Amino acid sequence: MSDFSTARQKMVDGQVRPSDVTDNRIIDAMLAIPREAFVPEAQRSLAYLDLDIDVSAGGPAKRFLLRSAATAKMIQAAEISETDDVLVVGCATGYLAALAARLARRVTATECDSALAAKAAAALATLALGNVTVKSAPVADGDSAGAPFDVILLNGATEIVPESLYRQLKEGGRLVGAFALTAPQRAMVVTHSHDDFGHRALFDTAIPVLPGLERPPAFVF
Asked: What angle do CA 113, 15, 210 make, to 5 degrees?
């Protein structure tokens, strides 16, 4: 077993399983997807540590590969099925999109940093995941051309109510992400039902905010 394979197993056993992630499909995906492929080569030794890894590589805004446990818990809450169409918003280098692709029928991943979008597309191509499309687009825009989606995953937190993304959910669709509207920040599931949107809190967290979903600056006299 390679060093990365051993680290992957330890990540699952030490970070993911103790976080009440019980869906074996997610466990299998996290064991199969090489997390090290989604960080810059100089940072690969950090790939399986319990931290958010900066993968910005000099980009205009900080972008992160999120902690494994929080990622797995939010995917589990989304209840992705093999017939679902999934949108990953702010995909960074593509790790969350790769995991979703192991569970869903089709995945669209958007990223506002075109250089990162290219890195994500390249990393996903090496894994021969043919059901993923990466698009360069502002985070708040989602992908209206591909909507509606069964599931929308935010690869980061939002400080605003992302209404434009809500409107891209199918009836019965779920949006999962971290909401930093107030303190503490909470991971939430938003469900679209009968032209209304229900919210259910999952757990407290602390996830970096996605560029484009920041709170507008307060007016100062």
From this structure: 20
**Sign of the C-alpha dihedral, residues 200, 150, 129, 39?**
negative
CATH number of the domain encompassing residue 153:
3.40.50.150
DSSP readout, 90-127? S-TTSHHHHHHHTTSSEEEEEESSHHHHHHHHHHHHHT
212, two tokens: 């484009």
C-alpha 73/C-alpha 156 separation (Å) is: 13
Number of domains in the chain: 1
Read off the pLDDT of residues 157-213 as tens digits, 9 standing for 90 and up: 999 999 999 999 999 999 999 999 999 999 999 999 988 999 999 999 999 999 999
Q: How do beta strands 149-158 and 169-179 pair?
A: parallel
Structure tokens at 21: 């992630």
Which residue segment(s) compose the domain that 153 sits in? 3-204
Tokens found for residue 139: 């985070």
**Overall average pLDDT of the 51-59 stretch:** 85
Query: Which helix H or strand E contains 165, and what residues bound it?
Result: helix 163-166
In order, the DSSP letters of 28-57 are: HHHHHS-GGGGS-GGGGGGTTSSS-EE--T
Chain CA centroid to CA 15, Å: 17
Q: What distance in Å separates the CA atoms of residue 148 and residue 150, rounded to the nearest whole number?
A: 7
